[in-house]
Amino acid sequence: MKPAQVQSQLTRVLSSAIAELRDPRIPLIVTVDHVNMTPDYGLARVYVSAIGADMPALLEALTHARGHLQREVAQHVRMRRTPTLEFYDAAQARF
């Protein structure tokens, strides 16, 4: 698969998986703005935003749920190996 296809699939899968998380630090609407993959597909940098959210707490909650989110990616995206997910504030990112 091409990197752009993988990134769009990851964006879609992560958006729905994050929406299903039940953590008080995660607001109801979290937007996955962009996913950046390393060339070897070993690492996915996920840029998220949420209106009025406490971003440090949100990023901490997503990092805490990383294992669950990686399992969701493994189930829904056909790849040789599932990338490690890292979460960043989209407002402070330069794509």
Characterize the structure shown.
The chain is an alpha+beta fold and 95 residues long. It is globular and about 35 Å long. A hairpin with a 5-residue loop joins strand 1 (31-37) and strand 2 (43-49). It is built from three helices and three strands, in the order αββααβ. Helix 1 (3-20) packs across helix 3. It is 41% helix and 21% strand.
Give the neighbour order of strands across the main sheet. 1-2-3
Structural class: alpha+beta
Give the helix level as a range of percent.
40-55%
Mean pLDDT level: 93
Shape: globular
Strand content: 15-25%
Oligomer: single chain
Distance between the ends: 21 Å
How many separate helices?
Answer: 3
What string gives the helices and strands in order? Answer: HEEHHE
* Major sheet size, sense and barrel closure: 3 strands, mixed
Query: Tally of extended strands?
Result: 3
- Can you tell me the residue ranges where pLDDT is under 50 for at least 5 consecutive residues? none
Radius of gyration over all CA atoms, rounded: 12 Å
Pfam family, one: RBFA
Protein name: Ribosome-binding factor A
Subunit structure: Monomer. Binds 30S ribosomal subunits, but not 50S ribosomal subunits or 70S ribosomes.
Family: Belongs to the RbfA family.
